[in-house]
Backbone:
């Protein structure tokens, strides 16, 4: 478990972190038999998934398996046709995405979701809606991603892909999310940049934030995720420790 | 596995307080639309039945047309009832909210007036 072992400390009540070895706490996210689709055609055929507080769960699977749709559904961006989306113990089917985001469910979408015509600073400014001052947001962002400090007044659309993804993550983390949802973080990025970004994901997980991430390239998340779920054709077909699922993953990607 | 218990508790509390869209409102809207459709379809059916009856001298066909016309009229009555029920429900909700607000404003005025007297 990366979160506990990376820093090797058992957190005390002073810093609000709780070492949970039993996973007996109530889940922060549950999907029960969730179905959803586009134009009457079902894409999700009954997805079941549980994310415990502080857990890093990776949904892995081939292109078109319904991974991104699952994230859109739980973030309130896409309607559920059947089933239950339960966040922090409450059924939230039909909740507005901005309501969920304001409370701490942060989705970093595929394609980064930054404002390309605004500067890096202005993009960060957008994330002061939880009452945090811009200076504080900037400081936190630069602490995590030093590269952003050098281009605060640069237009976000002119940044490199890696820098844009860093900005997207900085924006998400500035809101102090309780549940961070990452969609294809590695999309279109150089392997070295992807490694850097996943290092940050590992740090965020070690700080106790629950993370649900979707990746097409399974090997990247093997060291970060506590639990992996293999998704094929709109269903979670297997869940377990990432290393134990390598055979299922090969079958999912290669068929047969 | 570590988790930030304070943040999770805060998140749980905020999610519990979050307002979700009222499913009853969307159901009311659907039934209101069904009412309108039934009203229009009922009238159209009745007119068509009249046309069928008018164009024939065969009493069997005319009796069939009468039955169809009665069905159309029933649809219109049911549609009207649904429309009235759910359009009035919307209006009543608004009216009740307005009434509550006016009552509160009136109470505030009375309280202000009483306090003004005491101060004076």
Residues:
């Amino acid at each position: 478990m990366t979160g506990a072992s990376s820093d090797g400390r058992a957190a005390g009540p002073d810093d609000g972190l709780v070492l949970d070895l039993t996973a007996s706490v109530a889940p922060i996210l549950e999907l029960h038999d969730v179905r959803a689709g586009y134009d009457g055609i079902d894409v999700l055929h009954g997805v079941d998934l549980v994310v415990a507080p502080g857990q890093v769960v990776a949904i892995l699977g081939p292109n078109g398996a319904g991974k991104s749709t699952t994230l859109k559904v739980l973030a309130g961006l896409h309607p559920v046709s059947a089933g239950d989306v339960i966040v922090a113990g409450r059924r939230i089917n039909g909740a507005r995405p901005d309501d969920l985001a304001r409370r701490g469910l942060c989705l970093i979408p595929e394609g980064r979701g930054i404002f390309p015509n605004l500067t890096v600073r202005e993009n960060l400014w957008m994330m002061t809606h939880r009452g945090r001052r811009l200076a504080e947001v900037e400081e936190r962002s630069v602490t995590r991603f030093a590269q952003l400090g050098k281009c605060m007044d640069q237009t976000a659309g002119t940044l490199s892909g890696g820098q844009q993804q860093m900005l997207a993550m900085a924006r998400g983390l500035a809101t102090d999310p309780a549940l961070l949802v990452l969609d294809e973080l590695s999309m279109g990025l150089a392997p070295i940049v992807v490694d850097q970004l996943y290092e940050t994901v590992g740090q965020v997980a070690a700080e106790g934030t629950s993370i649900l991430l979707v990746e097409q390239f399974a090997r990247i998340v093997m060291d970060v995720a506590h639990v992996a779920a293999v998704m094929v054709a709109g269903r979670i077909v297997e869940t377990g420790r990432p290393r134990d699922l390598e055979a299922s993953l090969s079958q999912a990607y290669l068929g047969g | 596995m570590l988790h930030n218990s304070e943040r999770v508790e805060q998140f749980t509390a905020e999610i519990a307080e979050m307002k979700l869209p009222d499913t009853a409102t969307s159901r009311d809207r659907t039934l209101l639309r069904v009412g309108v459709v039934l009203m229009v379809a009922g009238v159209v059916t009745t007119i068509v039945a009249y046309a069928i009856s008018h164009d024939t001298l065969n009493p069997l066909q005319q009796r069939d047309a009468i039955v169809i016309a009665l069905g159309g009229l029933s649809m219109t009555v049911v549609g009207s009832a649904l429309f009235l029920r759910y359009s009035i429900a919307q209006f009543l909700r608004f009216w009740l909210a307005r009434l509550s607000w006016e009552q509160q404003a009136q109470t505030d005025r009375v309280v202000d007036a009483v306090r003004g007297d005491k101060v004076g």
